[in-house]
Amino acid sequence: MNNIIEVRELNKTYKDKTAVDSIDFDVKEGEIFGFLGPNGAGKSTTINMICTMLAPTSGSITINGFDGNKDRRDVRKSIGIIFQENTLDEKLTAKENLMLHCRFYNVPRSKRKERIQEVLMIVDLVDEKENRVETFSGGMKRRLEIARGLLHYPKVLFLDEPTVGLDPQTRAHIWEYILRLKEKEGITMFLTTHYLDEAEISDRIAIMDHGKIIAMDSPENLKNTLGGDIIELSTQDNEKAMLEIQAKAPEAEVTSKEDIIYLKVASSDAFISEFIKNLEVPLTRLNIRKPTLNDVFLSFTGRNIASTEPDKQ
Amino acid sequence: MEGIFAIWIRDMTRFFRDRARLIGSFSMPILFLLIFGGGMGGTMESLIGSSMPDAGEDFQYLQFVFPGIVSMTLLMTSIFSSLSIIEDKNFGYMKEILVSPISRVSIAVGKVLSASTIATFQGIMLFLLIPFLGINYSLTSLLLVIPFMFLLACALSSFGLLIASFLRSTQGFQLIVQILVMPMIFLSGALFPINNMPGWMDVVVKLNPVTYGVDVMKKIMIDVESLSPMIRDAMGLNLQLFGTTLTVAMEIAFIFTFTVILILFATLSFRRANA
């Protein structure tokens, strides 16, 4: 597959700090590329540079064959962006918002009506097109923004925290639409999210921290690098239990966070029966699971992504 | 072109949809017409009239102040409409515009044109009051003044856009009105004749571009030729610069140049602020 985005030695430094520190990556045509990282990791800065909204300090960005520094206009034509915050004109109707977008992007006059209908169908808003956006719910506004981002048939769709601030049910719906899009249109998607379960739909994920990309692979491979299973347990005396575990089961990797002890073992099935029989400190809670992206994140950064806030701009 | 049109049509749709703004925008000029026309009219007329025993009767203050109040409306509306660009920034819509392929120049020009259209529209709406005010202007002069109103509005909107690129929040609004817009109105000859002013004030008046706009408005709308020279003088319509009496053509040429320069500056500073 061809690379639709190529980023080389991209840097962004402000007076007193480096926001993006010499990163390199490619996004392949047709894939969903996830961008993960805690608040202040440099995700938004990177996206803003790719979208031509911010000039890089150094480095190069190529999108759809166009130079992000020189051919800004062509880059802008090639991308669609769904921003974190609402960027609809709420005083206008859904249709008017879409029509304006057609004008901004010079969608051929004869095709405008048809395209508006088409994108409204994708996000199930056909019946709402004559209503003003201020009467819409949060989820409807998001869907309308997604529809708008698709109007000019962009090569890459950027989704910056597309489900932030939405209730779980609406979040699930939004992802349904996004997946439907990928299947039907084969459009390349570049997304950032701090909901790790949502990042799982990505074909590849880049984890960013302190301005650097510290890991990049498919979610599957990232989780496999951790290997084995994770056992979470709580006991009546965690400190004592940890010492005991380290003595009796040296093969397990032990970490603790708040009042939970995490054990990483090659295979939980073989380990657990022996372990429970031998543990003297009484157990209060036990959970066995496969590694998640959160564990990946934890192992790379030493922090829990769930405790970080989404980026604010 | 399509981009300019898009920016323009959006502002038009928003303007005509916002009833409160539509009504609110008339309250100020009507208030001024009431206060200056009704309240101050008598005093002004007797003051000026008493200085001209022969022709005093012919001086009609309302006839004098009406074009000034139209100019004031143009100034206020132009500047406020182009300041709406700050609102767009705060509510996020500016991002949608800025990531699109339309050029920064088109955005600025579109904004200037929409603000000018709105301002001109409001000015024209004031014409509807003419029959109720007991004054009369010829239809031709009213039709002639409309293109000039649009030109003046373009200059003032560009000025507003220029200010907007230095402001980050709408809170700066009040300040701008107090330190810029109000003096620009009061020191333009819009509301009272600019005669016998202290030297420094005369300089400010001559530097104020609105002065020339107001002067042209008055000269087009008021049938100057039929006025006696004394009344012309009393109305402050013999504007002089470096000892030359200015003609309408000279003033229009000046405002046109000024508009072009302002649009240029406004687009440049808008581009700088939104690289």
Automatic annotation (TrEMBL), chain A:
It is a peripheral membrane protein. InterPro entries: AAA+_ATPase, ABC_transporter-like_ATP-bd, ABC_transporter-like_CS, DrrA, DrrA1/2-like_C, P-loop_NTPase. The keyword S-adenosyl-L-methionine does not apply. Residues 5-235 form the ABC transporter domain. It comes from the Bacteria. Its main location: membrane. Belongs to the ABC transporter superfamily. Drug exporter-1 (DrugE1) (TC 3.A.1.105) family. It is found in: Cell membrane. The keyword Cell membrane applies. NCBIfam families: drrA (TIGR01188). One of its GO terms (molecular function) is ATP binding. This is ABC-2 type transport system ATP-binding protein. GO terms for cellular component: plasma membrane. GO terms for biological process: daunorubicin transport; doxorubicin transport. Keywords: ATP-binding, Cell membrane, Membrane, Nucleotide-binding, Translocase, Transport. It holds the Pfam family ABC_tran.
TrEMBL record, chain B:
The chain crosses the membrane at residues 20-41, 61-86, 107-130, 142-163, 175-194, 248-270. Pfam families: ABC2_membrane (PF01061). It comes from the Bacteria. GO terms for molecular function: ABC-type transporter activity. This is Transport permease protein. It comes from Sinobaca qinghaiensis. It is found in: Cell membrane; Membrane. Residues 20-273 form the ABC transmembrane type-2 domain. Keywords: Cell membrane, Membrane, Transmembrane, Transmembrane helix, Transport. Its main location: membrane. The keyword Oxidoreductase does not apply. Belongs to the ABC-2 integral membrane protein family. It is a multi-pass membrane protein. GO terms for cellular component: ATP-binding cassette (ABC) transporter complex. InterPro entries: ABC2_TM, ABC2_TM_bact-type, ABC_2_transport, Nod_factor_ABC_transporter. PROSITE patterns: ABC_TM2.
